Amino acid sequence: MIFSSTIFIFIFLPIVLGLHFLLAKKYRNLFILIASLFFYAWGEYLLVLLMMGSICVNYIVGNTISEYQNKGADKQSKVALTLGIIFNLALLGYYKYIHFLLDSFSQLGIHLELDVSKVTLPIGISFFTFQSISYLVDVYRKTVPGQKSLIKLGMYISLFPQLIAGPIVRYQDIAKEISSRIITASLFKEGISRFIIGFAKKILIANNVGLIADKVFEIAPMEMSSSLAWIGIVCYTLQIYYDFSGYSDMAIGLGKMLGFNFKENFEHPYISKSIREFWRRWHISLSSWFKDYLYIPLGGNRKGRSRTYVNLLIVFFLTGLWHGASWNFVVWGLFHGFFIVIERVGITKFVEKLSILSRIYTLLVVMLGWVLFRSENLQYAFHFIGKMFSFSSGTNNYPYLFINKYIIGIALIGIVFSMPVRKYIEEHIKTFALGLRILDPMKHTFLLLIFIFSIMELAQTTYNPFIYYRF
User: Fold this and answer.
1) Between these two residues, 424 and 369, which has the higher pLDDT value?
2) Considering just the CA atoms, what is the radius of gyration of the chain in Å?
3) Which of 9, 65, 67, 404 is deepest in the core (most CB within 10 A)?
4) Is 283 a catalytic residue?
């Protein structure tokens, strides 16, 4: 079940919200836990048992760490933490990377006789295992106490708004809301608005430009023209942003409807002036997770320049690997890590001083990275990038059949609103006395119209993928 489906919007969500409000507060966490497990089981069936097992193990480990700390047994609490982290990483490693590892060994001539044909990737495992690890580490650091209620911890790990594709919500950020939360009319209204905005991003922009990107990437690079290659990667650049930020908006909106305040996950990343800034604006929950739970424990920038560069490359190697069990994701991560390093060295200082040039440089690097990210393999990616800069014609123009004025208009809207235009418009409307009175009615009318239009678009298409579902 995905957020942008009619089953979720018109059946699951209304039932969950309705029953949630009718129930007494003391039963709401249990209800959300049951609803979240049902939501997950809808698509994953028996794999929901894997999540339930993960919840139980992390509950036991978290309380074991807490109990040892209360007794002053630091060594034992560290051992418990280590075992908990190993368990979560083993879970992630087996289900997500076992095929990748065996294929890699096979290419090196090492053949292991293991039957993993029935091992499938559980949706959202990258997100809920990282959340579990952050919980255990925070308990060990005494940032939060161990959660004594299995229901409350289970609800945190399985919370359906962010379960499938994030954002990665840290336990410490919503610990108080898990125990006691107040849902106000303004918060609920804000949640609805945020959900509709994310829904429109996904259906109206991501889906339309994504179809063009898919058609282009189905063609062999030698058959496409340079212009078609650029069209394809521009469309994918828009698709992945509006797909993922749209999902995050919907998750944040759903959280608010249930009384949770999740942190922002995107902040107009395509206006960045450096790759460092890009990662402060893109998938913020992941980049901050790696910073706090990996980069800083590795030593961060406290152990000299060389060690700092090594730490950065380790972080981005694992960032790439976290996104997918494929060498092109690893290279994509190291590609970004390389530019982070050369920016810290100072090689790009001249470019960064020139505002427009720095933005062009950053966006170009990001787009080249998206070629690695989108391509099925490295060979295809390198040929695609070569075609982008060969300025040659092609023999296959099939994707052009799908490009019309509507798609071009949607793409232009996507480009414009990838910048903080909406905030700029709202601020200028507020400068007028009349603007203050009409701003809310205008916003509500606009949201209603865009929701209706998005539903109409959803009803007439079968193309509705979520890119981050596979991570």
Assistant:
1) 369
2) 23
3) 65
4) no
